[in-house]
Amino acid sequence: DTAVSQTPKYLVTQMGNDKSIKCEQNLGHDTMYWYKQDSKKFLKIMFSYNNKELIINETVPNRFSPKSPDKAHLNLHINSLELGDSAVYFCASSQVPGGAVDTQYFGPGTRLTVL
Amino acid sequence: AQKVTQAQTEISVVEKEDVTLDCVYETRDTTYYLFWYKQPPSGELVFLIRRNSFDEQNEISGRYSWNFQKSTSSFNFTITASQVVDSAVYFCALGSGNTGKLIFGQGTTLQVKP
To answer: Nearest-CA neighbor of B102 among A22, A111, A108, A90?
Structure first.
């Protein structure tokens, strides 16, 4: 019954490693997003995809690469992890296609810790 | 530029008190949407309400109510008779334009003490 799911929930890794976070939604939504929440709880959009097409790329280092194999999945791959990448990463989805504003439903978050 | 300001960083109240969380937004768009989300200590983000710029009617849902005033660019959230379970971080967000992205405020941490 989970609407937006993310795996893993916790991810602890060393600097320099490459890691991926997976996101799946079973709501039938057309648009998916990645947000980063820093240690001060500030939430900022990173990417959005509409039916596998990139809509938003918000000045994120190119070490971050989203991949959308289909409209129900949006994965986040991070190369050469740095200490500053430590954060909680949230996946979200919304129904309306084409980049229109709509209610976004969030996954449970993935807490990434880079040592 | 679009911006959302939640000036109250932390609020602490005693159970059964009423509390209002402030949200002020900036946008040049005439069509936009405002949202409130709740982030309890467990960490998930829970959608509470969405309002569009053409609908200034206040809304009440149980103990929650929202006051949208375009004249002051504010979308405030009031919890009546607060309960310990209301303790959370509350985010106000603004969405407009053709990208679908939401701009979040800094969040207000509400602590309700028994």
So the answer is: A90
pLDDT digits (tens, 9 = 90+) for B77-98: 999 999 999 999 999 999 988 7
Task: Annotate A4-50 with DSSP letters as a single string.
Answer: EEEE-SEEEE-TT--EEEEEEE-S--SEEEEEEE-TT--EEEEEEEE
Cross-chain residue pair B107–A101, CB shorter than 8 Å: no
- Which B residues 41-80 touch A at CB under 8 Å? 43-47, 50
Which among B45, B98, B100 has the least Cβ separation from residue A102? B100
Give the number of beta-carbon pairs within 8 Å between A and B: 66
Question: pLDDT digit string (tens) for A56-103?
Answer: 888 789 999 999 999 899 999 999 999 999 999 999 999 987 678 899
CA gap A32, A23 in Å, rounded: 9
The answer to whether residue A1 scores a pLDDT higher than 70 is no
Q: Which residues of B44-59 are buried (b: 16+ CB within 10 A; e: fewer)?
A: ebeeebbbebeeeeee
Residue segments in chain B with a per-residue pLDDT below the cut of 70? none
Name B109's Cβ contacts closer than 8 Å, sequence gap at least 6: A41, B9, B10, B11, B88, B89
